[in-house]
Amino acid sequence: MAKNPVVLVHGIKDDARKMERMAQHLRAEGWTAHTLSLTPSWGQVGLDELAGQLAAFVQTTFPEEEKIDLVAFSMGGIVARYYVQRLGGIDHVERFVTISSPHHGTWFAHLLPNAGGRQMRPRSDFLRDLNRDSQMLTRLRFTSIWTPLDLIILPPRSSRLRVGSERIIWMPAHPLMVWHRRCCRAVADALKA
Fold first, then answer.
1. pLDDT tens, 133-172?
2. If you placed Cys at 10, which of 18, 36, 152, 155 could pair as Cys (CB 3.0 to 4.6 Å)?
3. Whole-model pTM?
4. What CATH number should be reported for the domain holding residue 113?
5. 176 contact partners, CB below 8 Å, separation of at least 6
6. Domain residue limits at 121
7. Quick count: other Cβ atoms within 10 Å of Cβ 165?
8. How many separate domains does the chain show?
9. Quick one: DSSP state of residue 42?
């Protein structure tokens, strides 16, 4: 099987280093894995603006006709969804994996009094707009990986999206999901589907 290049997108208050362990795991299994740093990453700007950075990275890194796969953690999953659903990424992405992403918001975001925080709150206009046509994700191979024990994505079931497939990893530490051996294995499995 030919393996698409993979772009790994970090979450809030992180940078490319957060995804490096997973990138190394994927590289060891034969993928070309790329990480990028979205800035600023603490919610100071809207997730749509960060999605523009992701779109620019993809445009300058890969030929237009080349398919890629996306793996995105936490807030990065919502950034990547905006890229896929609103910025034309749907035509460039073949597989899309989110890890512990607040697809339906998180109560934790009420502690973030900034643009990105407001967008990640349950029932925000931003998330309602994305979820209104989430069925478009059936055009690619979408997988949601999440944990019922999440203490950051509240409620944890907010990481479920009723399209594609899902994989549950029993891990209570949200920030460690992308480093967890079972999560790395689940991502690799999803990228082989």
1. 999 999 999 999 999 999 999 999 999 999 999 999 999 8
2. 18
3. 0.97
4. 3.40.50.1820
5. none
6. 6-192
7. 12
8. 1
9. S
